[in-house]
TrEMBL record:
Lineage: Eukaryota, Viridiplantae, Streptophyta, Embryophyta, Tracheophyta
Catalyses which reaction(s): O-phospho-L-tyrosyl-[protein] + H2O = L-tyrosyl-[protein] + phosphate
Stated name of the protein: protein-tyrosine-phosphatase
Similarity remark: Belongs to the HAD-like hydrolase superfamily. EYA family.
Catalytic site: 37, 39
Organism: Papaver somniferum (Opium poppy)
Keyword Metal-binding: yes
Biological process according to GO: cell differentiation; positive regulation of DNA repair
Length: 357
């Protein structure tokens, strides 16, 4: 684990100094913006806790085992929230983004800052907004550093074992067919070199994670360059891509879920939105303003009514995920080809009509 002095240098982490790339910077390229729901889409948790995932298999799965797995995840999520992400202090001060208060962060070096004694309270005044912004800066930096730099090896082993247990129980929702999906994203000429150096066993990558890799690489990308706002730029590709997460959960636990379910290198913390207080339509409108341009295509992927309603308001395509065995779109199974069809129906109707014939 890295020294707090190294992690918290105020100048290097000042939010105002982060690069920002918009769709207009790549005006000759298309940009695909994939807007994901989290629970029951990228991960399974609620349906484990309430037994509905197992019940869909008509007795072939042990309902109580799924509930126990869900409770273990819940315990780890809350523990890391409290121990490393200031959740006990700021639980009631949810914001839609970590960068929501960045204008109040003065870039102070926080290596000697005592967060236990600054008396942070409801951020209705500039002073408390600054205190909350400091915490958001630390959270963002820990997220960027990765889980293995935050927790000890024993806890990491427990989480790795729990991930594998969950993966097996959910029929590799977290891990089917990842090798072929990952190969689809590689730029020609890099394949043989990357296979020999890639840090994961392909069989251990999740299907949901593999789709994210296919749609946009994150901070460990080699063939493409991921900008500070998570947009993947490729000199070999005709399009840029970005994964955005819009979750109905509160922000800090949602960031921790990304951490624990191995999504943090595929979805940058700047691209995690909490709709808890503002609703998904508001978050979607912010995303449209952020990435809006003549060649931008948006696509929503999720399981709930909120993203369905918000997608209809924005007139964006929606791929509806269903975790039931009979579901038409689930993991494993969802591919970029399927998502591309939904996008073409809205943005290139003549192409989708040709595909149907």
């Amino acid at each position: 684990m890295q020294s707090i002095d190294v992690l918290l240098d105020g100048d290097s982490m000042h939010p105002g100094k982060r690069a920002k790339i918009t769709a207009q910077d790549s005006s000759n390229k298309k940009m695909n913006v994939y807007i994901w729901d989290m629970d029951e889409t990228l991960i399974l948790l609620k349906s484990l806790l309430n037994g509905t995932y197992a019940e869909g298999f008509n007795g072939s799965k042990d309902v109580q085992k799924g509930i126990d797995i869900g409770k273990m995840w819940e315990k780890h999520i809350l523990q890391i929230c409290d121990d490393h992400f200031f959740y006990e202090q700021i639980e009631n001060y949810n914001k839609p983004l970590l960068d929501s208060l960045r204008e109040y962060d003065d870039g102070k070096d926080l290596s000697d800052y005592d967060f236990s004694k600054d008396g942070v309270s409801s951020p209705h005044d500039d002073l408390n907004k600054k205190k909350l912004a400091y915490r958001h800066r630390i959270i963002g930096h820990k997220y960027e550093q990765g889980l293995r730099n935050v927790i000890d090896q024993d806890t990491m082993k427990q989480l790795d074992d729990l991930y594998e247990l969950t993966d097996r129980y959910t029929d590799r929702w977290l891990s089917s067919g990842a090798k072929n999906l990952y190969l689809l994203l590689l730029v020609p000429g890099y394949v043989s070199r990357l296979i020999s150096t890639f840090p994961y066993d392909f069989s251990d990558l999740s299907a949901a994670r593999a789709f994210l890799e296919q749609s946009s690489e994150g901070k460990n990308s080699t063939p493409h360059l991921a900008a500070a706002n998570g947009v993947t730029e490729s000199s070999d590709s005709k399009s840029d891509k970005v994964n955005i997460l819009v979750t109905a959960g509160s922000l800090i636990p949602s960031l921790v879920k990304c951490f624990l379910f191995r999504l943090d290198d595929l979805i940058m913390h700047q691209n995690v939105y909490s709709s808890w207080d503002v609703g998904k339509p508001k978050c979607f409108s912010w995303i449209k303003d952020r990435f809006n341009g003549p060649n931008v295509q948006f696509c929503v992927i999720g399981d709930g009514w909120e993203e369905c309603e918000a997608a209809q308001i924005m007139k964006w395509p929606l791929v509806q995920i269903d975790h039931r065995p009979s579901g038409s779109h689930r993991f494993p199974g969802l591919t970029l080809k399927t998502v591309g069809y939904y996008i073409s129906v809205i943005y290139e109707p003549s192409n989708s009509e040709s595909d149907e014939k």
